Amino acid sequence: MANAVTCLLMAAVVLAPLFAGAAGGKLSTRFYDRKCPNLQSIVRLAMVEAVAAEPRMGASILRMFFHDCFVNGCDASILLDDTADLTGEKNAGPNANSVRGYEVIDAIKAQVEASCSATVSCADIVALAARDGVNLLGGPTWTVQLGRRDARNASQSAANSNLPSPGSSLATLITVFGNKGLSARDMTALSGAHTIGQARCTTFRDRIYNDANINGSFAALRQQTCPQASGTGGDGTLAPIDVTSPDVFDNYYYQNLMSKQGLFHSDQELFNGGSQDALVRRYSGNGAMFAADFAKAMVRMGGLMPSADTPTEVRLDCKKVN
């Protein structure tokens, strides 16, 4: 059965709706077919190397995409470095110690520029790299809508306020995702991104010492490397978000929630006597359903665009405006 689920997870999910673009244009699956025909193979090969070197990188790039899209749309604003005239998003609270992999995107961008200069946005590269990172770890694939442009500004304040925290309640999660036009089902599917990746002790300490709806053995396991008092040397210690299969994109995340083994308070809120319990049960027993819903939700999230008055361009260097 596990092999069957894995095969289903690997199946392609082809989705091709059009979304409104930042400047009145449209995102399209064929946006670069003529202008940069080798784009997708360049990104794929680079992600193959990155994930082979460090499986966690697939989760890191996926998180980068999520944190970018939730702040004024998918516009690569998260990639901008601080300057004298610009305060970027890299050092915002939700990003400073959890978003990583910028060097991977920079390396991909350099290869893309060598193949087709001043053509492909950094925002589109992140979208493709996130898709490929998921797929390389055993998850689904999907057709990425392309044609995004890169913002010429960033908003650290929006990054601090628009992203849900590890301590969020279910009501807060539903509201935050709803504000982006994403449904509660989208939110529950996208939360399944936590089937891969690792988290720092500071993000889950409160849960393992203070939450009541947690498996005792699981809490004790995490307490071994995450001391209750901050500043005692364990703050940066990493733990897998999915205790069962942290380097494989599968549906064990939901099975863990049913056993009260969600690492974050916000994770366990999805299965805590609330409105998403039934969906968590379905995903826990049907990996193919989760994979399909996750792919659809990723396409919808990838359609979040900056406002029409946002100044945009195709950056030549993802770290800075042209």
Q: So, CATH architecture of the largest domain? A: Orthogonal Bundle
Largest sheet: 2 strands, parallel
Domain count: 2
User: Averaged pLDDT, please?
Assistant: 92
Query: Over the alpha carbons, how many angstroms does the gyration radius reach?
Result: 19 Å
What series of H and E elements makes up the topology?
HEHHHHHEEHHHEHHEHHHHE
User: What percent strand?
Assistant: under 5%
Shape: globular
Strand order of the largest sheet: 1-2
Please count the helical segments. Answer: 15
Task: State the end-to-end distance.
Answer: 52 Å
Top CATH class of the largest domain: Mainly Alpha
What class would the helix/strand composition place it in? Answer: mainly alpha
Q: How many distinct beta strands?
A: 6
Which residue ranges are poorly predicted, with pLDDT under 50 across at least 5 consecutive positions? 1-24
Helix proportion range: 40-55%
Provide the CATH topology of the largest domain.
Peroxidase, domain 1
Give an account of the 3D structure.
The structure is a single chain. The chain has 15 helices and 6 strands. It has helices at residues 2-10, 39-53, 56-69, 93-96, 102-115, 122-136, 156-162, 170-178, 184-191, 201-210, 216-223, 252-258, 265-268, 277-285, 287-302; strands at 12-13, 141-142, 150-151, 198-200, 238-240, 312-313. A two-stranded parallel ribbon has the order 1-2. The chain has 322 residues and is mostly helical. It folds into 2 domains: 25-163 and 304-313, Peroxidase, domain 1 (Orthogonal Bundle); 184-292, Peroxidase, domain 2. Its EC number is 1.11.1.7. The record marks 63 as: Transition state stabilizer. GO terms for molecular function: heme binding; lactoperoxidase activity; metal ion binding; peroxidase activity. It catalyses: 2 a phenolic donor + H2O2 = 2 a phenolic radical donor + 2 H2O.
